Amino acid sequence: EGKKELIFLSNKNPSILERLSRSFGHGSVVCVCNATYCDSVGRTGLPDPGQFLSYVSSKTGSRLVKSQGQFQKNSTGAALRITLNPSQKYQRIKGFGGAMTDAAAMNILSLSSGAQDQLLRQYFSPDGIEYRFVRVPMASCDFSTRLYTYADTPGDYDLQNFTLAEEDVHMKIPLLQRAQALSAQPLNLFASAWSAPAWLKTNGALIGKGSLKGKPGGKEHKTWAQYYIRFLEEYGKYNLSFWGLTSGNEPTAGEMTNYSFQALGFTPETQRDWIALDLGPRLHSSSFPQTRLMILDDNRLLLPHWAKVVLSDVQAARYVHGIGFHWYLNNIVPPGITLTTTHHLYPEYFLFATEACAGWSPLDRGVRLGSWDRAEDYAHDIIQDLNNFVTGWTDWNLALNQDGGPNWVKNFVDSPIIVDSSKDVFYKQPTFYSMAHFSKFLWEGSQRVGVSFSQHTSLEVSTYIRPDASAVLVILNRSEEEVQFEVWDQTLGFLPGSAPAHSILTLLWSRR
After folding, report:
1. d(Cα 15, Cα 464) in Å, to the nearest integer?
2. Residue 19 has what pLDDT?
3. In whole angstroms, what separates CA 67 from the centre of its chain?
4. How far are the Cα atoms of 147, 162, 202 from residue 199, in angstroms, in the given order?
5. Residue 419's closest CA among 436, 405, 435, 399?
6. Most CB atoms within 10 A, among 110, 137, 337, 350?
């Protein structure tokens, strides 16, 4: 801990400062890591009863800086009182993570083995930010260096020639095994396919507008369902089991003329029927009946309509566990209309954010090293999702290079970790710490609870009781002003707090 205070709170030794955090002119700093050094959060124990822990990251360069304080019997007199209401109970958290794309794997493996271990530890170990989820693309996507599927032999309806790719066997699988070995708990993997083999599709290509030939229940749809089972079987040979599957990445993309990369079109109606007639029964009768199936895996603004079409059909709904969605275009429709409405219509199906990245929009494209705005975008979206019944949030590529690739269609974006293999270093972006403020503290089974405010505030807040009976508050201050507040917990009294301008804060205390 002392080392971290030194880095961020003192300029006495500028050489240490320059070595460990760098500014690239995008508003804040990145943390520089190599094979021998990386700032780690470390393990977060609970403070003594009556004490609280505070972790703050800010635009000025604090990164999970820890401090301890004491609950007080009497109000601090702060104008803003945040009251914890543990009797108001909402959804339970599943967890947080990122995606092991071909590009992410290539970037991680471009480092020396010591730096690779360091990077994986940052995400998965108890000293790191303890990701629990990894999204795994089935075959190629735009973040691949070539186009392929696992069954590219035309007419192979029985999938006799189904084979994993070099990218799986030599890159993704060994890294997933290493990540699992570092993690204190089993990782929850979930798979998403971008496109079916070209010979199964109406357009005869992996890209562009196209869907499966024939109709749900027909041989192409049956083969595509069997492809999922074969994927699970092959990964199983490497001792990797999957927590879940999505019914396919961005089904609306394959409905768009001239779509530029891998896609497979479904309407909510055809997705419903394919699940009811093919994927659902096939998964149910396979060796993997417990695998959770998430529908949609596309933009949030398609809700609640997409869920209504699929889940109002009993034959399809019986095979479905959750609804996955992406963060793109989220600002168009408020979360209450999409997420909370969907939750109230179908409370037994969990909501799960399956993809998000910064730097995707043409107006603000690619990597921005040290961007604090993007850290705030992440934290804002996560809080908004969680406050609207979402149970988890998955980032996109775990690591990219300084171009924001490789990506075969040059669809370059940003990532919480950017690799510079020429120097054998990687940069932990502000967005990495945004993720940490949630993933490190909100254990699986944590339950969101009620919170109220004594007056209107610009702070964005989400509150939880964890399985160990501790309380967690995450607070985002996107304003230019520091905000003084107090938290009132009836069992303990008043917690005196302050959220610096442009900061993310996690508060933690035991309620036993």
Report:
1. 40
2. 57
3. 27
4. 14, 14, 8
5. 399
6. 137
Residue 168: strand, helix, or coil: helix
Half-sphere exposure of 162 (CA within 13 A, CB side): 19
Helix (H) and strand (E) counts in the chain: 15, 22
User: Catalytic pick from 130, 220, 250, 460?
Assistant: 250
Going by their DSSP bridges, the two strands 81-92 and 65-70 should be labelled as unpaired
Measured at the CA of 280, the angle between CA 277 and CA 285, to 5 degrees, comes to: 110
- What local confidence, expressed as pLDDT, does residue 206 receive? 98
Strands of the sheet containing 29-33, edge to edge, are 21-23, 29-33, 425-428, 417-420, 400-401
Residue from 167, 220, 355, 460 carrying the catalytic annotation: 355
Write the CB contacts of 481 (distance below 8 Å, at least 6 apart in sequence).
Answer: 501
Q: Are 57 and 375 in contact (CB under 8 A)?
A: yes
φ, ψ for residue 44, nearest 5 deg: -110, 100
The phi and psi torsions of 213 (rounded to 5 degrees) equal -65, 160
The pair of three-digit structure tokens given for residue 25, joined into one six-digit string? 């002119």
- Write b or e for each residue in 217-251: b if 16 or more Cβ atoms lie within 10 A of its Cβ, otherwise e: eeebbbbbbbbbbbbbebbeeeebebbbbbbbbbb
Residue 308 makes CB contacts below 8 A (sequence gap 6+) with: 345
Determine the residue type at 245: L
Q: Give 134's contacts (C-beta < 8 A, 6+ positions apart).
A: 97, 98, 99, 100, 176, 179, 187, 188, 189, 190, 398
Question: Which stretches of the chain score pLDDT less than 70?
Answer: 1-19
Q: Which pLDDT tens digit goes with each residue over 187-242?
A: 999 999 999 999 999 999 999 999 999 999 999 999 999 999 999 999 999 999 99
Q: Are 188 and 176 in contact (CB under 8 A)?
A: no
250 given a catalytic annotation: yes
Instruction: For residue 499, list its beta bridge partners.
Output: 483
d(CA 41, CA 25): 25
Model confidence over 123-143: pLDDT tens digits? 999 999 999 999 999 999 999
Beta strands (DSSP E) in 185-291 are 188-193, 242-246
Distance CA 480, CA 460 (A): 14
pLDDT digits (tens, 9 = 90+) for 6-24: 344 434 444 444 458 999 9
Instruction: Give the pair of three-digit tokens for residue 9.
Output: 């709170």
How far apart (Å, rounded) are the C-alpha atoms in residues 441 and 507?
9
481: annotated active-site residue: no
Q: Taking a C-beta distance cutoff of 8 angstroms, is the pair 79, 455 a contact?
A: yes
